[in-house]
């Protein structure tokens, strides 16, 4: 008896970067990194992420423990040095959050779009801008669209 050949799976390739996979679900998740859609939310602060793993990594920024009776995640305040803004009432224990916040007062925009030269205070905001303003048409016209 000759075994039947299995049909070859179709490879899904991203037209905006070099990503390729044989798994349609992996490809769908990857596309979210370009669209800016963030369907996965942190249960504590409601921050959104494009992939489930992003939420899992993010949870480590919260001090959390499981309430054994309900199995729910509970946030606990982290001890640490508070960074107090000298211009307003903003305070945080996260140095990177504090640095980003200060940019709202100084007007400095260290991340600049290489296409239209618009400035941004954060790298992620620049990335979202590039996608929304300069790459969206390219993605919308791409073959094998998922929407």
From TrEMBL:
Ranges annotated as spanning the membrane: none
Localization per Swiss-Prot or TrEMBL: Nucleus
GO CC annotations, alphabetized: nucleus
Keyword Transcription set for record: yes
Primary location class: nucleus
Entry keywords, A to Z: Metal-binding, Nucleus, Repeat, Transcription, Transcription regulation, Zinc, Zinc-finger
Domain C2H2-type intervals: 12-39, 40-67, 83-110, 111-139
Taxonomy, superkingdom: Eukaryota
GO molecular function annotation: DNA-binding transcription factor activity, RNA polymerase II-specific; zinc ion binding
Keyword Magnesium appears in the UniProt entry: no
InterPro entries: Znf_C2H2_sf (IPR036236), Znf_C2H2_type (IPR013087)
Protein name as it appears in the record: C2H2-type domain-containing protein
Native species: Larinioides sclopetarius
